Amino acid sequence: MLKLESKSEGSVPQPHESHFYHNLVPAYQALWPAVAKRRIQANLTALNIPAGTRVLEVGVGTGMSLEAYPEHADILGVDLSESMLAEAEVLIEKNDWQHIKVRSMNAEQLEFEDASFDLVTSFHTISVVSRPDQMMREMVRVCKPGGRILVINHFRSENPLIARVVDSAGGITRRLGWRTDLEVNDLLNELPIEVESCHKNNPLSLFRVLVAKRV
Ligand SMILES: C[S@@+](CC[C@H](N)C(=O)[O-])C[C@H]1O[C@@H](n2cnc3c(N)ncnc32)[C@H](O)[C@@H]1O
């Protein structure tokens, strides 16, 4: 079993302050899908998810990604924000998606046994939780050996110039609830995974697509 200790071992994980998201829902729903939905759909489709796959999506939000999952898989989305989940539930009901469920849960403390899912996904969430390393450990813990992990997120650029420019906006984005200085390699250290790819869908994209296999 994967150990969950971290630098702040013993402390209770602090859930993200999600009032921000509660207040932001209307603006978020108007703007965000246009930016991100196509990228999520393309990368989920590329995984060729087989029939019967048990999928966990961490930080499912309003359920923007949900239509991209095949109906032959079982999808569970979790999120801390009740208002985000309420929107996702409306979407699920409207589309009569029997294969999808959502529930309230802290990404840093997933309430599942080890090795419960074949595929664990997360989009644009790991940089808003209080402890990204803890969230990543939890995603890996609940993934079955041989299963896969898909994360799409902004990570700190490998180009020092771009990294410095983006870092300078960090004070603003942090006030908005997310950080821009997350180093992808820091998250992956010592985890029982093999990184299959960590790429951008195009060179100008701010977002990286991490695909890893649980060993
Ligand atoms: C930027 S939104 C992304 C939502 C969705 N994945 C998308 O791409 O549209 C980040 C999400 O993370 C959720 N979140 C923040 N902290 C969390 C935590 N500790 N546990 C679970 N969800 C959390 C927020 O409520 C929000 O829905």
TrEMBL record:
It comes from the Bacteria. It comes from Aporhodopirellula rubra. Signal peptide: none annotated. Coiled coil: none annotated. It holds the Pfam family Methyltransf_11. The lineage of its organism: Bacteria, Pseudomonadati, Planctomycetota, Planctomycetia, Pirellulales. One of its GO terms (molecular function) is phosphatidyl-N-methylethanolamine N-methyltransferase activity. Residues 56-150 form the Methyltransferase type domain. InterPro entries: Methyltransf_11, Methyltransf_Superfamily, SAM-dependent_MTases_sf. One of its GO terms (biological process) is methylation. The keyword Methyltransferase applies. SUPFAM superfamilies: S-adenosyl-L-methionine-dependent methyltransferases. This is Phosphatidylethanolamine/phosphatidyl-N-methylethanolamine N-methyltransferase. Its EC number is 2.1.1.17, 2.1.1.71. It is an enzyme of class 2 (transferase). Keywords: Methyltransferase, Transferase.
